[in-house]
What we know:
Helix content is 75%, strand content 0%. It has helices at 10-40, 46-73, 82-88, 101-129, 132-155. It is elongated. One of its GO terms (molecular function) is DNA binding.
Amino acid sequence: MNAKEISLEEGKVKPVVDHLNDLLANYHIYYQKVRGCHWNIKGQNFFTLHLKFEELYTAALTTIDELAERILTLGKPPYSTFKDYIETSQIKEIQTIGLKDTKMVKAIIDDLAILIAKEREILDITAAAGDDGSNDMVNAFMQFNEKNTWMLRSFVNED
């Protein structure tokens, strides 16, 4: 399959796919970080953050699948190795064992800022390519991340 089969120009789709693969790599590292926070949270905020982290990693897992399937829909292969994810991702791994709850939240806030910036950039690229399908999908991811940034910033009193 290629982009022509869904009425998109192949040349305009390449930058879309490149950026979607970049976002996919970042989401994989983010997913694992949130998962580590979920597993390793301790203290008085355990019940609140354990549930919130589960909500975030579950959403990230769905996002990862949607990104990979969109890349395939555009006729290209999605990144699928941890080597690709680690080399490509701007989001970096951290050790979550023993990390204080507020430091976990702040790390997730920082990652969400990276994801949102990448998503905003992709919105411009997909608009230029006439790729409304990718644009709508990424816009929904961004809105979810914006809302959760507000919630997490409020949790650590950084609003």
